[in-house]
Amino acid sequence: MNQDRWQKVKTLFDSVVELSPDERYKILDRACRNDDDLRREVESLIDSYHEADSFMEKPSVAEVASLILETKKLETGKNFGHYEILSQIGVGGMGEVYLAQDKKLDRRVAIKILNEKFSRYQSNLKRFIQEAKAASALNHPNILVIHEIGEAEAVNFIVSEFIEGETLREVIKKTPLKLSEVLDISIQIANALVAAHQSHIVHRDIKPENIIVRPDGYVKVLDFGLAKLVEQKAIGFETETEKQNQTARGIILGTINYMSPEQAKGEKIDAQTDIFSFGTLIYEMLAGRTPFAGDSRSETFANLINAEPQPLSRLAANVPHELQKIVAKTLRKKKEERYQTMKELLTDLKNLRENLAFDKRLEKYSSEVDENATAVLQGTTGDVNNRTNETNTNFIERLRRIKSLTASVLVVLLVAAVGLSYYFWSASKTSLNPNGKKSLAVLPFVNAGQDANAEYLSDGITESIINNLSQISGLRVMSRNSAFRFKHNQTETKNIASQLGVETLVTGDIKQLGDKLIINVRLINASDDTQVWGHQYVKTSTDVIAAQNEIAQAVAHNLRLKLTNSEQKQLGKKYTENPEAYQLYLRGRFHNLKSTEPEILKSIDFYQKAIEIDPGYALAYVGIADAYRTLAIAGWNAVSKEAFPQSKAAVNKALEIDPNLAEAHVALGWAGFSYDWDWVAAEKELKIALELAPDSSDAHRAYAHLLSNAGRHDEAIAESRRARELDPLSLITNALEGQFLFFAGQEAQAIDRLQKTLELEPNFWIAHNALGRVYLHQGRYEKALAEFNIARELSGGGSTVPITGLAYALAKSGNQEKARAILEELKAYAREKHVSAHNFAVIYNGLGEREEAFKYLEKSFQEREVDVAFIKVDRRWDNLRSEPRFIELISRLKFE
Hints:
- This protein has 896 residues and is of the alpha+beta class.
- Helix content is 56%, strand content 11%.
């Protein structure tokens, strides 16, 4: 389920989960009237939630949680059998825990006194004793030792070893754990769980409170009180235990933040539950929070069932890529996609720890011999004379698995292998790409500090690096639109690279600490998911412009790209020297790309502030031009005659400052055909843009739009496909290709492309709207109306386009009454906000009222509305094409 869809499900679930069934059904009827799948998803979540009546830490039967306060109290200094009670040290789900002195063996122990009412239920007691016996058989140094299970003074009790130390919860609260500490603790817990699982026991309640860390760092796993025997025959009391487990069937055991999805839903559980909970624990040690935590119990439950966790890289800096993959695999919703055994998981954790330790030793060796190694390199390979210490470290990383070699042998191998390793790596990369270009995607840098006010910075620096690298002719760089599809999930790098069709990925994270920026960057070889290069940049906020250029140059250098002089200059080009203006520009881009009217207006304000500080900032003028054009095209309370002149004025100013700015020529091209109707001048501008930036998907898409509107369909489709090749996951690029195919009369291909767009993002209303128009033209009214209704709902009332489409479809399908009702709603709306005259013209044409249609069409021409530029190919005007008045309107667009 994609993020937007999940947000919709979760919001609706939270709003109805605590209501009575009648009230809930009424709300669901209204909210899901056109979306049966949405209703099913919400109701499924509600069913699971209400089956989980006993959420928080309930033992095996529902009554127990309410009985905790009735546990027998033991007095300090008194004897309990041969144990002297020293102090009370805690309260557990089944009773209270005391520190005591074992007088027979002269040792301190912990005694858990079982809740009295809990003990009265014979089935509960039998089940607990059987499972406690099983747990006591777990003879492992990382598992709490159980000494005795018995009954004295009318109470049942368990005696275990007493561990001096702190719970993992207390440890986490004190200070963030180092990576080495996280791995050490995780490996000890995993060792304990391997032993338990081999004895056919699942813990079912792995959480920080059940882990004790001794002062010497030794870890003990506590409280197998919820443990479950999963293969009873190996234990020897299968019949009785099976009866007890039947008693607990359907009851949720454990603590919600650490439950597995199957545990939360009361389904059958096995060792996979511990693997999931253990992954949650590692995630929390690294990120400082659990992966599914919500603001309420219901939200946490909902997240657990369906939501994907935020990538660790977004919440914690410097987490090794391999560890991110390990944790992500433990947290898969489907059991079959997780680790299949705890032993397999333990092996990966141990290997990671060994590799990291080895890397550290190699770095030490590298620093000791770096000077000599560099001298040898310079004497043996003429093309690597300028190799830096950082690059040498990259080669050492490639030798990480040669663990048995001594330092001196490693150095010799390093020197001998440098030239060959780069030669073969580079050659293999080139062979993957028949046109000789290497391919790369820069994934959105993670806002590691989780400061919402700094989100613009991580997005903006990513985009700037993309733009810089796009200037290199020998490199195919994935555009922002496609790369940013992975903003919230970057764990499966090989899969991401496959979807984007690239060989290499750049990933990174940014954390702002006061005036300091800590930027971690990694270059990943997608074929084997190895890190080719990595570096940490520590900069002040005034160095941010230099930082992005340094990163782009380092990426190009480590890809072994041969750059022309002009490309080298482009990589280091600064559009402004003023860091404050740059950050204001980044804020403008951040808000502009949210694509809502309030956000775009906010972006214009930031762009203008950037220009006030640096009047020569050409990109900021282009930002203003793009913002006004978007307002005009979307029709958000903006009149074309007001918005486009402001857009053109800004872009002309940008071109005065920098005539070779491809983005400015694209903006001028849009204005040329959308507003000026000067097709020749617009085409000239777009061709200039493509000469300056031949791999710009934005330029190819704009040119395809011009060609389609002009009726040059074959050329339009070719340009559109080229735009999609350069930007395969861009929703607007894919949807517009479907629209261009429809205008060209290729309806089957149009439907196929639009459906593929919706596979990428089912909630993209523009694709639903375009699909509705195709179905309507085919006379498939039911399907068309369904698509327009979906588009209207998903647009959130932000655009009148799907409303117009729906009214037109209703009219054409014979339901004129409803069409007229929507028309009146639109007229009422137009009294408060701007509504394009073209919308009214379309609806009147659907109703068969030609005079009204022509009246509003004329008004649309007078207002120079963007929609007018479509009428040559818009199929909704096919019935008027032989009319002299329509022919005259077409001639005014100056297509010839």
